[in-house]
Specification:
The protein is mostly helical and 118 residues long. It has one domain (3-117): Four Helix Bundle (Hemerythrin (Met), subunit A) (Up-down Bundle). Helices cover 74% and strands 0% of the residues. The chain is built from 4 helices and no strands. The protein has helices spanning 3-32, 40-76, 91-96, 104-117. The protein starts with a helix and ends with a helix.
Amino acid sequence: MSAPQLAYFQGLLHAERDSLIQSAHDTEHHLQEFEATPDPSDRASVEEDHSLELRVRDRERKHMHTIDAVLQRIEDGRYGWCEETGEPIGLARLLARPTATLSLEAQLRHESRRRMQA
């Protein structure tokens, strides 16, 4: 992969990471706002909204760890190479999923094995 391509993906991943951090800060501020709701059903609705928002942020937190690992792969020179086969991951796949660590074929095998185990 060329240096400009690596720089592009690195910028893309940093932008996504920054967006996730901003979402976390927005959630923090939103949850700190006090909403006095005397009606129990309204209060339950607010609590359910907060719970859903926290679940989404937890999923985003896990994704941020993935982004950090991929950024480290860029620094190490391993980005764009399949962890399983050592073959290059296609640019089309990386454009669709910049955090991909497996080639399309390896990912399909991985998902097939997981379905067979379930």
